Each structure stands twice: as structure tokens, then as C-alpha cells.
Amino acid sequence: MRSSHKLGLLTVLGVLAAGALSAGAVGLVLPAPVANGDFRDGGAPNPAEVELGRALFFDKVLSGNQNISCATCHHPAEATGDGLSVPVGEGATGLGPDRNTGAQSNAIYERVPRNAPALFNLGAAEFRVMFHDGRVEADPSFPSGFRSPAGDALPHGLKSALAAQAMFPVTSMAEMAGQPPENEIAIAAEAKDLPKVWAILEDRLRAIPGYAQMFEAAYGLKPEEIRFADAANAIAAFEAAAFRSDGSAFDRRLRGEAGAMSDSAERGMALFYGEAGCSGCHSGAFQTDHEFHAIAMPQIGPGKGDGASGREDYGRERVTGDAEDRYRFRTPSLRNVALTAPYGHAGAYATMEGVVRHHMDPVDGLYACDGTEAVLPSRADLDSVDFAVLKDPELLAAIASANELSAWLAGEDEVADILAFLNALTDPAVLEARGTAPETVPSGLPVID
Questions:
Q1: Which of 31, 148, 164, 280 fits as disulfide partner to 8, beta carbons 3.0 to 4.6 Å?
Q2: Strands 292-293 and 329-330
Q3: pLDDT tens-digit readout, 130-189
């Protein structure tokens, strides 16, 4: 996992002999323990704002056809993801890996192109870039304070990049808006009239008495004053509070608890922050540098319409327009990584071991990938395009040539130790968060399919 183009933020201060590592191993620079001060609300969120956000997060009223919610693809029962390689959005039914592709007139027209990322710790102040390609980013040069696909049309008053991110799934036809002419939100989304999408949703929320009361409690707003930006702020507040995750064995180790991690996890941590070079990109308290890297990750699913095939996903280049950024994707945080499969921007790997081994020799991993680890509900027309890139030698060669990671060939014991460390990043509280969903929401729509 050594990066060939940067050293990262954490380096090894000493050479650790193999077999000499223990819970008291020294010589590694580790991140400081996570603290309340790392989060935007200082660890003390507004309860009324969080409760409003919880209702909105699970309420299908925010979708064009009122049949899908934020939680459908980011459910606590699925470790804030959906358990699929790439999501099955508007038009489908079911939850997690059991979700289908819909039926008859309600069938989906395509899969969502990228894996649904986990939401852990996004309330921390350091998370200023959102989405796999970073298309939402805090940027004071923009009137709203954020660079985004909406440009200057993004409303003012958004409190964080996480809130700015929440403005966009409702505008995606594949994710939440639906297909025209099914509903007025879908029609506005097809026309790329994002302010109209948000305005329609504002009118919906204003007309629901329960939401009028909740917006007043959270923000002191009258119904006619409710804006979708306020809803986005509330969703972000809920996500920040509900999905804060800093109670893992690794966290306890950082806070000085002796024996918090197993000996194998200790050895894996030494490799991660040492010889294996993982921390060159997976740095800091949340194991991410928030940067973009090309690591020859396999492309499956419908892609983003890039290239002559239309099945490629150019990643960061789609935002910057710089060909040097082709196939670069944002470094994900590794918190609770053992629970957040499938892995990669398109979910090509179903196991943590599979994606770790890919990092150890990315180009070989790319060429060895045959799509068998993909977790995708089958439908003939969708299946026919899911592996188009994997079957095209020229496209594989292009992805391989952009790779920035040097191979690091580990022994089986080292692989096992790194996996043990990654498992030590799991917070047991994640299991408790599975009960986060409310029984009812103000719209009266069903909370779960």
C-alpha cells in the first residue's frame, strides 16, 4: 500500500524488527485520539435539529415518487451503506442486498453508477470534500461557501460540506427524483433545474404540519420560511450525531488502554503506519488524507458516461477537467471498514481481504478482477453492461497505466495482521445504531419497504 507519489502525513521514526512488536511497541507516529473538539458541534448537537434530520433522513417524502429515502442507500442496518456494489435507486423495493430492480413501469432504468459510501464521522470538521470525485467541496470563493455542481445556484446558509452534499441526491433521477414524466421533480431534474427541485420539496415540507412544528423547534422558522437548505442542515446534523464513531479498539488504544488491541492487530498497525505505507493516503484520526488517488480500482456497473464506451468513470477528472486526474478517487475513511463492503468506488470487491490484496499489487488486482465479487441484483439488460470495462483490454490498460501505487508483496502472516488491525477499527456502537430509524415520520409514508 505504499504510495509512489507522496509520503503521507505519518512516517516511521524507527525500524521495528519483525516479531519484536507488542502492545507497547514504540517508534510509530500515531494520530491523536478523536475528541469532541474535532467535530463541528463540539460534540453537543442541537437535539431538535438532530430529531428533525432523523425524520427527514428516513422519510420518502423527499423523493420524486415518494418511494425512497436517504436511508434506503445509507441504512444503519447496513453500516450506513446498502450492501450492494452500486445502489439500486428510485423504482426498486427492498433493503440492502435484498433490494430488487423494480417491476414493470416502476423498474429502474439504470443502476446508480457509484458505490454508496459510509457516513461515519462526516460531522468532523476535517471532512470538507464530499462524493467519490469531490464534486462538493468547501470553497469560500463561491457565494454559498461551497464548490458544487449547482455553481452559484447553491443556496446560502449551508453549515457544512456534509449539508451541501445532502442537497444533491434528491436531484438525481436514478437516485431519488425519478423519471420524467412521472412527477414534477423528475421533470425539473432532467432539465437540470436544481433550484426548482428544491423549491418543490420546500412546498411539500411546508404543507406537512409535523414538519412545520419540527422546523420551528429546530430553527424558529415559520412554514413559509422553510428552505431545503434548512432540511439539508438538519440531515447533516443527524448524520453527524448518529454516525459519529470513535469507540473502536484502536480508539481505546490511542487513549492509552493497555491491551485494547490483539497482538495481531498491533502488528498490523505497525505495518499500516510503517513498512506497508498504508498511512501515506489513509492518514490521520479517520484514516484518510481527503485527497484523490488512482489505484487501478476495477470499474463495474453502468459507469458515468465517460470515454467512447460511455461505461467508464473518469473520477476526479470529471470535476477538475484535468486529464492528470483521470481514474483518481477520494481516499475513503477506514472507520468500520470491516462492515462496509463492497469496496471501491464501484464496489468491485466484496471482501476486505480482496481489496487489501488489490492495494498490495493494484495492476495485477485489476487484471485478475473478473466481476465475481460484485453484489448486484440481476436483470438481463443491466447485467449486459455491468462488466463492459473489465472485458475491454484497452480500457483496462488505460486504468492500469494511471496507477500510482507501488506493489508491496506481503506474506500471509502480514496480510492477516493488517486485516486484524482493520477489524480493530470497528466501533461496537455501530450495532446499536441499527435501531436509529423512527417508527413513523411526519409525512405518514412507510419508513422501510
A1: 280
A2: antiparallel
A3: 999 999 999 999 999 999 999 999 999 999 999 999 999 999 999 999 999 999 999 999
Tell me the helices (H) and strands (E) count for the chain, helix number first.
16, 5
Domain end point (choices 188, 210, 244): 244
Nearest Cα residue to 363 out of 403, 395, 410: 403
**Are 295 and 412 found together in one domain?**
yes
User: Whole-angstrom Cα distance, residue 235 to residue 220?
Assistant: 17
Q: Are residues 217 and 287 located together in one domain of the fold?
A: no
CATH of the domain at 372: 1.10.760.10
Instruction: Please list the residues that pair with 136 across neighbouring strands.
Output: 130
My answer on whether 311 and 227 are in the same domain is: no
Q: Please report the pLDDT score of residue 16 as a whole number.
A: 29
DSSP string for 179-227: -TTS-HHHHHHHTT-HHHHHHHHHHHHHT-HHHHHHHHHHH---GGG--
Provide the domain limits for residue 297: 257-423
C-alpha cell read off for 126: 476535517
Adjacent-strand bridge partners of 106: none
- In this predicted structure, the answer to whether residue 37 has a pLDDT above a threshold of 70 is yes
75 three-state secondary structure: strand
Listed range (78-87, 154-163, 427-436) with the worst mean pLDDT: 427-436
Count Cβ atoms below 10 Å from residue 38 Cβ, excluding itself: 20
Q: Based on the domain organization, do 232 and 313 belong to the same domain? A: no
Are 234 and 278 contained in the same domain? Answer: no
The DSSP line for 287-298 is: T--S-EE---PP
Element (H, E) at 238: helix 228-242
What's residue 232's pLDDT?
98
* 264 and 410, same domain (yes or no): yes
Dihedral sign for Cα atoms in the order 424, 328, 362, 309 = positive
Last residue of a domain, one of 213, 244, 275: 244
Alpha-carbon distance of 255 to 273, in angstroms, equals: 17
Task: Give the mean pLDDT of 6-15.
Answer: 29
Q: What is the rounded average pLDDT of the residues 187-198?
A: 98
* Number of domains forming the structure of the chain: 2
Indicate whether 261 and 235 sit together in one domain: no
Q: Is 302 domain-assigned? A: yes
Q: Is 90 a domain residue? A: no
User: Does residue 127 contact residue 165 with C-beta atoms inside 8 Å?
Assistant: no
pLDDT at 339: 97
What type of residue is 190?
A: E
Confidence of residue 432 (pLDDT cuts 50, 70, 90): confident
Residues 281 and 217 in one domain: no
